[in-house]
Amino acid sequence: MTDALDQAKRALRAELRERRQQLSDAQRAAAAEGVRAQLDALVTARGARSVSCFLSSPTEPGTRPFIEAAIARGIRVLLPITREDGLLDWTVASPGGEEVVGALGVPEAVGEVLGPIAVNDVDLMIIPAAAIDRSGMRLGWGRGFYDKTLGSMDRRPPVYAVIYDSELVDSLPRDVHDQPVTGVVTPTRTLDLPADT
């Protein structure tokens, strides 16, 4: 990655973090309910019986209401556990499951570790992002966990990133390792995107 590209990404991430931190508790609660409704509809439309998701941090669009609702519907939900080598292990979500703060300061589920290839069997991946552009390119938070995971999959299921409405942008700085997504889920809509691969 060039220095200019790295600096552009860092500046954009800092701006997005600041915007997220300025949201009120009421705005966050409304966003979480909107995300739950959008993800419920997406899972139904895709006929997904097994999904991967993530435990949202306090400033991310909330995923916990969706995770609890999916478990109650009998959907198998895998949650990520970060590894030192940059890959993700997975564990099965359980109702009211235990959480810890992971090595990167984000919430992670506690459970039986299934290993990186467990995600190969899901029908749908739901991942975090800082922003997505209209070609489907994703800006993550700079650690590369999801780019490595997506880049290593032989058969990738549909991948949807959860963001706030304002984080769908016209274009993003991109590097060769950046992985596209199938679409975005925001508190108000679900949008399929023409991945630019």
Written account of the structure:
- Helices cover 29% and strands 22% of the residues.
- The protein is of the alpha/beta class and 197 residues long.
- It has a single domain (3-192), classed as Rossmann fold, CATH 3.40.50.10420.
- The strands form 3 sheets. It has a 7-stranded mixed β-sheet.
- Strand 11 and strand 12 (190-192) form a beta hairpin.
- Helix 2 (25-46) runs parallel beside helix 3 (64-72).
- The longest helix has 22 residues, at 25-46.
- The radius of gyration is 16 Å and the shape is globular.
- The model has no long low-confidence stretch (mean pLDDT 91).
- It catalyses: (6S)-5-formyl-5,6,7,8-tetrahydrofolate + ATP = (6R)-5,10-methenyltetrahydrofolate + ADP + phosphate.
- Belongs to the 5-formyltetrahydrofolate cyclo-ligase family.
- Its cofactor is Mg(2+).
Secondary structure elements and their pairing?
Elements: H1 3-21, H2 25-46, E1 50-52, H3 64-72, E2 76-82, E3 88-92, E4 99-101, E5 107-109, E6 124-128, E7 131-133, E8 138-139, H4 145-152, E9 159-162, E10 168-169, E11 183-185, E12 190-192
Parallel strand pairs: 1-2, 1-6, 6-9, 7-10, 9-11
Antiparallel strand pairs: 2-3, 4-5, 7-8, 11-12
Helix pairs in contact: 2-3
Structural shape: globular
Estimate what percentage of residues fall within beta strands: 15-25%
Give the uncertain stretches in residue-range form: none
Please state how the strands of the largest beta sheet are arranged side by side.
Answer: 3-2-1-6-9-11-12
Please describe the biggest sheet, giving its number of strands, its sense, and whether it closes into a barrel: 7 strands, mixed
The CATH superfamily label reads NagB/RpiA/CoA transferase-like
What number is the mean pLDDT?
Answer: 91
What is the CATH architecture descriptor? 3-Layer(aba) Sandwich
Distance between the termini: 18 Å
**Structural class of the secondary structure composition?**
alpha/beta
Can you give the helix content as a percent range?
Answer: 25-40%
* Tally of contiguous helical segments: 4
Q: Roughly how many Å is the radius of gyration?
A: 16 Å
The level 1 CATH classification is Alpha Beta
Count of β-strands: 12
Count of spatially separate domains: 1
Q: Do you know the CATH topology?
A: Rossmann fold
